[in-house]
Amino acid sequence: MNVIAIFVCLTIIVIILLKIFDRFKNKRMYELLEKFPSYPTYPFIGNLYMLCGSSNGEFLKKLNKLIEPYDRQVFWFGFVPILFLKKHEDIMAIHTQSQYRETLGFADEWIGTGIINAKYEEWRKSRKILTPAFSSEMLSKYTVVFNKNSSALVNALRQVADTGEVINVWDYLMKTNVHSIVENVMGVSIQTSGKEGQQFGDAVYKTVQNILKRMISPWLHPSFIYFLYLKITGESKVMKQLHHIPMKILKEKLTEYRNGNLKYDDVHSSKTVIDQLIKESLHEPSFTETRMRNELLHVTGASIETTTLNVGFLMLMLAIHQDIQQKVYEEITELLTDDEILTPDHLFNQLKYLEQCIKETSRKYTPVLGTFRRTHKECTLKDNKIVPKNTMVFSAFHWAHCDKELFENPHKWDPDHFNEQNEQTRSKNGFLSFGYGPRSCIGAKYAMMSMKTEISHILRSYHLSTNIKELTDDHLCANMSIRSKIGFPIKFTSRQKLHK
What we know:
Layout: H1 2-25, H2 27-33, H3 56-67, E1 72-77, E2 80-85, H4 88-97, E3 101-102, H5 108-111, H6 120-130, H7 136-157, E4 166-168, H8 170-186, H9 196-215, H10 223-233, H11 236-258, H12 273-281, H13 289-320, H14 322-335, H15 344-349, H16 352-364, E5 371-374, E6 379-380, E7 386-387, E8 392-395, H17 397-400, H18 420-425, H19 444-461, E9 462-465, E10 476-478, E11 482-484, E12 489-494, H20 495-498
Parallel strand pairs: 2-8
Antiparallel strand pairs: 1-2, 3-5, 4-12, 5-8, 6-7, 9-12, 10-11
Helix pairs in contact: 1-2, 7-8, 7-19, 8-9, 8-13, 9-11, 11-13, 13-14, 13-16, 13-19
């Protein structure tokens, strides 16, 4: 027992000495950070304890309360300082001056290194490889898959339509988005009756929860402890489910290539994400199977989570705001005949009011609370306050969207926030749901086209209503995204029945 006590004491002393050395070595960083507001901190845990023990339902309330007093604050995750910024001009300054995006390493075991969290030079390589997969040419081709899976969604909803039943549409939307993203990104259609798609969607959802839990639990920060935790809790099975589909499809594609059934040259190769990755791997040894799997996880996981949430919230808003639903329905039916399918032109250049509704939903119920940046040099904010080099900065998109200087009456869901007049008078790039700058979301146009297609198909077939009169803050929770505690309760009435 005495040996253990001595070991613990020595470990604490070493950590304290390392901290003192770090403070001496990075004296300027600490001096500059002390000019920003901060809550009292404690040794080893900083002030992260203020979020510890938060469930998904409590996390958003606690975080709102903590960051409400100031537009800029320094939080300490153990010995790591994180500067929270929620003013638009501050976020623009950081994103313009620093392109080093970080995830603090809490997601590495789940999704590895890829386009979301890669170091700058590796990110540039990933972006260059993946960009052709999101070109106008490829987006036009994806429209076929969007229409097919949206039609399947409409057919699936027939079993609950006209029954008077209010259902949570989350599982329906998740299944649709998993099928669309896997087919468009990996070039393979998942069997509708199979369980793999559902398991993959569930794993994406649970992954986000696990990453947040680790982030706000200091005892889970060390990797060896976290691996033990995953084994004991059984969450390691979720990780296997997350990795299964992309790795399975990747291996199948590689086998086809090795057997001579696929060609990867400028004439024959497809420009889907998976084909772009395999083509790169043929002459770039660093693009191993694991690296390619990670890139697939980054692209598919981010798309599934964000589009499912956004469409769910939008359907709920349209069900609550019947006048706006009618306006969207009229825009769709004026553009399309009963049997006409959506074309790339419709999705790129038309359905403008529907696009306003999608953007407003994404503003109010931000699918990504914010992103981390690490400053690779000293960055100057608008009032000349300096953010030191090597500082972790959290750009709080969700809270920037609540800025009255950008959005009049920001706590109200109102598609007119994105009408032509407001778009022209508002500060440029005030809408941050897809990020800002070179490291913004590569799939922004893809997501918009996907959501436009789903909503158009649904509203052409069904009228939406709900038993919720208003979605309040008490209905909301968060992990890395804004979520609904009550799901998305919708009642579907077929248009034919409604018009009789």
